[in-house]
Design goal:
Elements (H helix, E strand, L loop, with lengths): L5 E5 L5 H12 L7 E5 L5 E7 L5 E7 L4 E4 L4 E4 H4 L23 E2 L5 E2 L5
Parallel strand pairs: 1-2
Antiparallel strand pairs: 2-3, 3-4, 5-6, 7-8
Length: 120
């Protein structure tokens, strides 16, 4: 993608500091980027950074299976219950894994690319 407006990343212990630090620093230089979401693996938590009209970035935290993240720029709301569908946080395994079943798209962007969150 050349001009992303939204980037969503699943963070892990090995990439968390890079995703929050240097990578986000580079992403902030993209004029097209309006929203950056970090999805936790070990609990239902999404951190949403959104670019304000003055260029500053605001952080909102969405925690728990009843929470939802609204990405105003693309008129999209993501329920954490959908993001973490089929995830058992009590299991003794990584919380997020690839789901091997047909995916349901939650959003189709203006150029027709489907974004699928069922595999998170």
């Amino acid at each position: 993608m050349l001009n992303p407006t939204v980037i969503i990343e699943v963070i892990s212990d090995s990439t968390e500091s890079y995703d929050r630090g240097r990578k986000f620093e580079m992403y902030r230089t993209l004029e097209s980027l309006t929203d950056y979401l970090l999805v936790a693996q070990d609990e239902p938590l999404v951190e949403h950074y959104s670019r304000m009209s003055d260029g500053r970035w605001a952080l909102s935290e969405h925690k728990g299976m009843d929470a939802a993240v609204t990405i105003a720029f693309i008129d999209c709301t993501l329920a954490l219950a959908d993001i973490y569908d089929k995830i058992d946080f009590d299991a003794d395994q990584p919380a997020l894994r690839l789901v091997k079943e047909p995916a349901t798209s939650l959003y189709t962007d203006p150029v027709g690319a489907q974004l699928d969150f069922a595999s998170l």
